[in-house]
Amino acid sequence: MKDEVKEHRMSCIVNLLDFYHTINRQEMYIRYLHKLHDLHMECDNFTEAGYTLILYAKLLNWSDEQLPPMLHNNKYPEAITHRELKEYLYYDIISCFDKGKMWEKGIELCKELTQLYEKELFDYVSLSKTHKRLAELFDNIMRQMRPEPEYFRVGYYGYGFPSFLQNKAFIYRGKEYERLVDFNARMQILFPNAELMKTLDPPTHEIKESPRQHLQINAVSPIMELKEPFKNKQVGEQILKYYMVNEVQKFTYSRKSDESPNDVTKMWLERTNLVTSYPLPGIVGWYPVVSMSTFAVSPLESAIETLENKNKKILSTIEQHRLDPNLRVDPLGMLLNGVVDPAVNGGISMYKVFYNGEYLLHSECQHDSELVEKLKQLTLQQVTLLRDALMIHRRKAPENLKPFHTHMEQRFAEMCNIIEREYGIKVADKGFASASLRRNQSLPNTAIGRTSDYYTSTSSSSSSDINSLTPNKYPSGHRTQSVWVRPDKTSVSPGKTSLQSKMGNIIKRASAVADSITDNRTSLEQPIELSEQLVTRRPPRPESDKNSRPVSNQFRGDNLSTSSLSLASNTTATSDTSDAFSSDEPPPLPEKSAYADYTNTVDVDPQSLPRRPSATPSIKNKPQPPLPEADRPPPVPKKPH
């Protein structure tokens, strides 16, 4: 039997199931449930087969009650109670959902079994096996890739179709990797005499009353209803993907109006929302549409939705590459190239008119200002996502894609410039420089390479504090110290140095460095000319005193050091010098050291000069005392021959 004929049989069986369920014919209801399950297994519809068995399992309860004859299952003859048969059915359902990659539904059943084994049966062996299976299902969600099915709306118009299809619309769930072209071909094989409608206009009365077959097929998008446990929480993209295309009952599609296709501000959309009788997927891959509503979407709202969808796509791709480092980079490159280098009049340039103020002046809608602000925020968000995605592409791109990546980075920089220049949106970062490079670029030119490493790496808050203190801390003509001086110990109590005082010292040092840099730059730009004559404050000595003084380097000592000159000696010498100037006699000569150099004197005998007695006796030329006779060691005996 062909699959097309099997689908016709499935539709008929579903109608029979509704009928037998309505009249409460449980035996016939169970019989056709088995037939529908077998048809799904023959067509490899594992998801629909699992949902069919769930209807069978709902007729049973978790008790040891004996099964009535109509509930017996020939596949499990050993099951004689409700609990035993329901347990077997749950294992089959979990297996079907696993094959259909509906792991979330399998997790629900596994959790129900764990409660049974832990709280009712105390079967820890089965509990352990169920937990292992549960772990595998969770692992599949995060690690395995599964295709996202597409959904299609099919309208059957005319009396040429079977009675349960005439002038009705259905939502179909496509098979794995089935696109609109493939689905159209499948429906035309199922109804070879049907005529495919070319537009989405509502069918006329003549078409509905026609004896012929008219098919109207178009793709629809599912509307996800966020589950209660996920609301107001951060949920991973890999988890939400399932609920975007599964367990959905509302769908939507849009089409453009024919008012002005060339003017963006007049490109209104006609949107249609559809609601099915049951959520998809279910016991079959299609359900009838029970309600439909149509409304208009403004051009500005359409632009916002377009940017939102593109941002979601980029964010989803980024998350995929972060979760799987081995993922191919080609799809990411094609996605980015379509945004940073779109076709003619593509990308955000299509909505250029919405960014300026002229559109709001001529707008009649009161909420357009809020929508324009939202559009700008989405534009900035897209720039951020593009930068992150380009960084991933740079890191993972092979050598043959390096020129392509360089081209995308150039286009991205041009895109940022256009956004700032023409759209009036400030872009924080247009390039791909590292954080340290961007931080150094933000400093003044004279500060780069001159300030300390600590000052360069301080946070923005510390930098603002330093900048606020710098203008008021030092006057413009004050010369700052180039080294840090230890504060006076008398001003700070020992053992009470706090973190605030340490930070204050750091701020002072940084401010001093900044001021010195500023002073150096000012001195280089405006040279200062010294015109004041230097005059000594001490009165000059008479000529007789100058002639009686020896040559300045006459008594130069080789071993003198600056450390031997203390503050007290300097003070004494200063006072003595002042007293000497008041008298006519020259000041006395300083005492000579032990090893002064007298080679530059004339007619002076060094032996006749008095030597200052030394406190420590010199032992340089003294001979060593002889060893006592008793302490001499005995001679070493000779070795025997």
Automatic annotation (TrEMBL):
It holds the Pfam family DHR-2_Lobe_B. GO terms for cellular component: cytoplasm; plasma membrane. Residues 466-483, 490-503 have a biased composition (Polar residues). Keywords: Guanine-nucleotide releasing factor. PROSITE patterns: DOCKER. It comes from the Eukaryota. Residues 451-465, 560-584 have a biased composition (Low complexity). Residues 20-428 form the DOCKER domain. Residues 444-503, 518-641 are annotated as: Disordered. Residues 623-641 have a biased composition (Pro residues). GO terms for biological process: cell migration; myoblast fusion; small GTPase-mediated signal transduction. One of its GO terms (molecular function) is guanyl-nucleotide exchange factor activity. Belongs to the DOCK family. PANTHER family: DEDICATOR OF CYTOKINESIS (PTHR45653), MYOBLAST CITY, ISOFORM B (PTHR45653:SF10). This is DOCKER domain-containing protein.
